[in-house]
Design goal:
Layout: E1 9-15, E2 24-30, E3 35-40, E4 45-46, E5 50-51, E6 57-64, E7 67-72, E8 75-83, E9 86-91, E10 94-100
Antiparallel strand pairs: 1-2, 1-10, 2-3, 3-6, 4-5, 6-7, 7-8, 8-9, 9-10
């Protein structure tokens, strides 16, 4: 799987470290062959019940067939394909695993 077009849609997010009850859905939009946007969707929570009021938007540029990178607030962000249903996503809050929403 190397096409960004295959990534389009909703992905369930879990934090890899220090999860603190974080639950969220991130939506991936493929802008073109080189660029994609990943947006944290309304309804995300931390600590199991605390709404996340500051939703993030990650704009990224393709750097390889399986990886896109960008910056947000001077911090590096990236997403990398692990398999067709799993992505590794580095956010400004730390690493996450994204799994395709069914």
């Amino acid at each position: 799987m190397s096409s960004g077009a295959n990534l389009e849609g909703d992905w369930d997010a879990t934090k890899t470290h220090m999860a603190c009850g974080y639950t969220a859905v991130w939506h991936i939009t493929v802008k073109d062959e080189e660029n994609l946007v990943i947006k944290e969707q309304p309804g995300s929570h931390c600590c199991g019940c605390m709404p996340n009021c500051f939703l993030k938007t990650h704009n990224m540029k393709k750097v390889s067939d399986t990886r896109w990178e960008g910056r947000l607030g001077f911090k590096p962000i990236w997403v990398e394909i692990r398999d067709e249903n799993t992505l590794d996503h580095m956010t400004t809050d730390g690493p996450m695993t994204l799994t395709r929403t069914r």
